[in-house]
Amino acid sequence: MRVVVQRVSKASVTVEKEVVGKIDEGLMILVGIENEDKEEDADWLSKKLCNLRIFDDEEGVMNKSLLDVKGNILAVSQFTLHAKTKKGNRPSYIAAAKPDISVPLYEYFVEKLRNESGANVETGKFGAHMEVALVNDGPVTILIDTKNKE
Which listed residue (6, 14, 55, 79) is catalytic? Predict the structure, then answer.
């Protein structure tokens, strides 16, 4: 699994002019799933994200986690995170998992985030054309790939 996580002061996702997910302070997480990804990847990633110390403490140092600030989460599926761009100018998405693999794993991951964080976890709509809006606080943007755990 590969994610782009951003510390946000607010974020939302809209589908067909309807807001389907909206948060205030917390994490905006774009989630890409590959064929080889398993529940163990989602377990590791949800724990990592909830405990990632990227929120400012009283001295302005990134020393607090989502759990510490009681932040929210907006998790949006994004197969394009697995784009291959080595050849030509048109990205290949062959590495991205098909819906029969990615939908159940994405739903499992969202549930793990809810259980791990106790936070309000909002989502987009899997497979839909989504408009994502956010205010990146910092800016803080981090890439995490479960293939690079060690």
Answer: 79
Q: Is 6 a catalytic residue?
A: no
- What burial class does residue 61 get, using C-beta atoms within 10 Å of its C-beta: 0-12 exposed, 13-18 middle, 19+ buried? exposed
In the chain, % of residues over pLDDT 90:
97
Say which residue the tokens 């408009």 belong to: 131
Taking a C-beta distance cutoff of 8 angstroms, is the pair 5, 28 a contact?
yes
Instruction: Answer yes or no: are the C-beta atoms of 126 and 78 closer than 8 Å.
Output: no
| Tens-place pLDDT, residues 58-97 | 999 999 999 999 999 999 999 999 999 999 999 999 999 9
**CATH class for the domain made up of 2-148:** alpha beta
Catalytic residue among 78, 109, 123, 146: 78
Give the number of other Cβ atoms within 10 Å of residue 84's Cβ: 12
> pTM for the full model?
0.95
Domain boundaries, the chain: 2-148
